[in-house]
Each structure stands twice: as C-alpha cells, then as structure tokens.
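4.2 Preliminary Data

To establish feasibility before requesting continued support, the project team ran the inverse folding procedure on a target of 341 residues. The structure was first converted into the token representation described in Section 3, and no sequence information of any kind was made available to the design step. The complete token record follows.
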C-alpha cells in the first residue's frame, strides 16, 4: 500500500493552519476577566457625568479663585491669595456670614422641632393619616418662587400687608418687615420653615416606623407613657435620621438664595445688608460687580464652612450617642431579666 501523501497545509507550510478551539481553562479565564470588568462598565457613566458636571466645575472654581478674572472679558491673570486676603478683610463678608448663620438657626431649629412633633403625631393610628401626609408635602412641591412672592406680600411694609393687618387687630403697630434687621430675617426664616417642615416630617415618620414595636410595648408594660416613650425610645432610635436632617438643613442654610433675593427684590441684601447671605454676596460680587475671581473665592470659603459645620454636627452627634446610649431600653431589659429569674 502506498504511503499517504503529506500536503503543504499538513506540513505547516503554505496557508495558515486551522483555528484552534479554546480550551475550557482559557475560556474560563476570559469569562472571569469579563465579569471583573462588568461592574466598572456599569458605574462608568456616573463617574463620567460626575467628572464633567461635578468635579471639573469644582476644580475650575478653585483655579479661578486665584485669578483676577472679570465678567466683561479679558484673560485671567494669576494673583495668588489676593482674592482671599480681600475677602477676609471685607466687612461685607463677615456680615453675610453672620446673616447666613442667624437665618439658618432661626429657620432650622423650629423647622426640625415642628417636623419631629408632626411625625410623632402621625406615627400613631390616625384615620386621616394619608390626608396629612399629602398635605405636608404640598409646601415642598409648591414652586419656591411663587411661595416667596406670596410671603413677600404677606410681610409687606404697607399697612395693607396681611401680617400688619393681623398685628393691627391685636393692637400692635405695623412693622417694617423688609427694612428691619431681625424682622427681615424672621420673615425669610418663616418662608424656609414653611417650605421644608413637611418634607422633614415625612423623613422622621419613615424613621419612626422602622423602630421595632416591641420596644414601645416593653416601655408601655413598664408604665412609660407616650411622652416618656418619645424621649427614651423614639429619639434614640431616630438619632441617625435626626443627624441626616441636621446635615441637610445646614447645607440648605448656606445655599439660601431664592428667598432673600425675591424678598428684597435684588442681590444687595437690603439697604443695610440685613439679609445679605453668602450666596447673595457671591452673586452680587460675581454678576453685579463682575469680579468672578472674588466670587470664586467666596464659593470656596463657603464650601469649607459647610464641611466644617457638617463635621461638627457629626462629631457632636457621635459624642452624644456614645455618652448617653439608650438608658431606658437598657434599664428595661435589665428589669425584664431580673423578673424572669
């Protein structure tokens, strides 16, 4: 029998050899690499958008804060720390910082206390609970511009303003709400409180409903009334939620713009700067005067202030939690163990 002939393809010469089938080990390695890359592919759109619309504007603002850059045109010129030295030497900056803190305090504290009380009332069985939930979110869903204009007419300086009419019925002379120092701040704080109380109340209500019911039952068996249950069961269980709302309110207080801008009908913050908050001051320097470098410096300092306030709130909350804990719950559990023995 004649020996079989060997072709050029069989000998490895001539045309390319046949494609090799991947082994199971090689296929598993490829699939493993694909699985490891998949999470990065899924989260890549977020980081791309954050880099384009979050990180880049932040870095660019910091860079502009070291430049002399005017709104009218011209190339930025590096001036170093000159914008910051001007800022810390400006009395208007300290006035706007003080007004931001005072308006933030007189709006945040009543707002969160009222929200906590409303949430506590709604946490118990009420036939109209759904109605009150919807009614509390209505102020938050209302246009802030429209609400501010309505409150501006309520706190109008004229005797025909609704608030002055009510004061006149009580025998009190009309108040110049817009031009007064504290009266203007109280009026703006009232707008903020009306807008955000219902929103925070719903957050508190959601937190209250996540607290185990057996804690309330154990406290009720031991004779604790609703007020003591609220102090020693609800408040400790809501500490993370309360810290969350405090942080949000702190950030929101430093971002107030629409309310004082429309209430005073301008970015000057009043004739005496009685409600010139940081955002109004930054807007006035950047877009009214046209010094974008100085406005960027104000923005950077505001960011640092917000970070410090948030860290301060978080530190105080953690310190209070570590010191106090949940004394009533611990005491009840200890008494339950003694009774079982």
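Position-by-position output of the design step:
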């Amino acid at each position: 029998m004649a020996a079989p002939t060997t072709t050029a393809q069989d000998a490895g010469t001539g045309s390319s050899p046949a494609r090799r089938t991947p082994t199971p080990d090689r296929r598993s390695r490829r699939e493993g690499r694909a699985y490891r890359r998949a999470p990065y592919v899924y989260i890549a759109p977020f980081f791309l958008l954050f880099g384009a619309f979050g990180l880049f504007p932040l870095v660019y603002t910091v860079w502009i804060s070291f430049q002399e850059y005017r709104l009218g045109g011209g190339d930025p010129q590096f001036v170093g720390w000159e914008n910051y030295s001007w800022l810390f030497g400006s009395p208007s900056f300290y006035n706007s910082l003080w007004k931001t803190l005072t308006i933030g305090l007189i709006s945040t504290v009543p707002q969160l206390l009222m929200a906590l009380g409303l949430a506590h009332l709604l946490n118990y069985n009420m036939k109209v609970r759904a109605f009150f939930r919807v009614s509390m979110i209505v102020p938050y869903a209302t246009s802030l511009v429209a609400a501010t204009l309505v409150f501006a007419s309520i706190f109008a300086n004229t005797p025909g303003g609704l608030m002055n009419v009510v004061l006149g019925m009580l025998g009190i002379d009309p108040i110049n709400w817009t031009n007064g120092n504290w009266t203007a701040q109280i009026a703006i704080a009232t707008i903020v409180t009306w807008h955000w109380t219902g929103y925070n109340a719903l957050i508190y209500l959601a937190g209250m409903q996540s607290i185990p019911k057996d804690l309330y039952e154990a406290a009720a068996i031991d004779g604790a009334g609703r007020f003591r249950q609220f102090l020693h069961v609800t408040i400790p269980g809501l500490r993370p939620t309360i810290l969350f709302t405090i942080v949000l309110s702190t950030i929101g207080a430093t971002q107030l713009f629409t309310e004082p801008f429309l209430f005073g009908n301008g970015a000057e913050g009043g004739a005496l700067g009685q409600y010139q908050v940081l955002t109004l001051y930054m807007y006035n320097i950047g877009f009214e005067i046209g010094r974008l470098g100085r406005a960027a410096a104000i923005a950077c300092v505001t960011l640092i202030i917000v970070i410090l306030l948030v860290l301060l709130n978080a530190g105080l909350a953690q310190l209070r939690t570590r010191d106090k804990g949940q004394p009533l719950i611990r005491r009840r559990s200890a008494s339950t163990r003694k009774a079982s023995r």
